[in-house]
Amino acid sequence: xxxxxxxxxxxxxxxxxxxxxxxxxxxxxxxxxxxxxxxxxxxxxxxxxxxxxxxxxxxxxxxxxxxxxxxxxxxxxxxxxxxxxxxxxxxxxxxxxxxxxxxxxxxxxxxxxxxxxxxxxxxxxxxxxxxxxxxxxxxxxxxxxxxxxxxxxxxxxxxxxxxxxxxxxxxxxxxxxxxxxxxxxxxxxxxxxxxxxxxxxxxxxxxxxxxxxxxxxxxxxxxxxxxxxxxxxxxxxxxxxxxxxxxxxxxxxxxxxxxxxxxxxxxxx
Length: 269
Ligand code: DGL
Known about the structure:
By secondary structure, the protein is an alpha/beta fold. It has helices at about 15-25, 45-60, 75-80, 80-85, 95-105, 120-125, 125-135, 145-150, 165-175, 195-200, 210-225, 245-255; strands at about 5-10, 30-35, 70, 90-95, 110-115, 140-145, 180-185, 205, 235-240, 260-265. The chain has a 6-stranded parallel β-sheet, sandwiched between helices. Helix 1 packs across helix 11 (about 210-225), helix 5 (about 95-105) crosses helix 7 (about 125-135) and helix 5 packs across helix 11.
């Protein structure tokens, strides 16, 4: 048993797709979320900058005596995690393996699409992980850099005149490849599931990396006998590097309800 909090971080709001899963599944756990909202997006930045930001995010969470970290950011997971995770003793879980494992399990044809930020797609990390879980799979990827700012601006709904043509522009090529599974490789993208699902059609499975990582983390904590006491009520705290008020408003979109727990502004050093 371990009552220390679980840490979750993202460059912005997308990691709330993992947080939401943890809130629902783990009522006994204390959860601390960090959204680097002052510096989002990470997606087009250099590898060195992403590594520097990742260390700052991790060290902020470690200063809260956490027991494990979910890196609920596709960009950090694909670009920086291999190098950074080994610098710390605390277990750190990225989104790549859980999402790739799920996709490898769901696909029947072995034709898997991957969408993500420019850096995530260029890293090839999801493709490599899929090959490890299901050798011989064919992967097709596409960077979708406009999705993050559109999601952060709430352009996520079916019928929205801005998001629908952007989805078509980015995903037409993937639809033509006859994939049967698509990894939404940036944690913001599951907010577009409705629009992407409509466009790709009902036969394409969509994989949410944040939610898969939350499930994987829960499994690992169980195996290590490191879950919190079952008779305690968990607390939730949110830290952001830009306005707490704006975050609270936007977060309700991601969580499908108002977030419970205090939101504080912080600086990362
Ligand atoms: N949620 C981040 C990711 O999964 C957003 C991308 C960004 O910061 O550019 O990659």
